[in-house]
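Can't paste images in this forum, so I'm doing it all in text. The chain is below; anyone willing to post the predicted structure tokens underneath?
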Amino acid sequence: MKIRIRGNSIRVRLQKQELGHLLERNQVVEQTSIGSRTFYYAIESSDSAPTICATFNGEGILISAPREMVRNWAASEELSLYGEQPEPTGVLKILVEKDLKCIKPRSSPLWEDESDAYPNPNTSCGGTP
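Text version of the structure:
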């Protein structure tokens, strides 16, 4: 699972196996250790979640989505789920996506393994072959 936080937006990308875990176990959790502390980020599907929402407890971020919404999304060709959450400082935008393979092959062995990513329906970036 990948996470991107930018301004008042959170984007999470799930590979095929991770989406399978979300369906089977109702949660996927990742963590990053920084010094002696650990930051976690997780996504869960829940019957009690009325819509896509996020919480932060000082140690990590939890994104919740309605279980039926996640099931329907996983079984479809749709690439993403989107939600907006009102906050005192504005609106938090939440995007959950199926992780797509990059269009251009990565030349560095330092890039992540994309073998479990979804096929990319695009053949070029921005119309440029």
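Residues 1 and 14 are 5 Å apart (CA to CA). The mean pLDDT is 86.
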